[in-house]
Amino acid sequence: MATVEFYRERAAQASRDADQATLANVRERHLVARDTWTEMADKAEGVIASRAAAEAEKLAMQQANALLELDAAHS
Question: Which residues span the domain enclosing 55?
Answer without folding.
Answer: 2-74
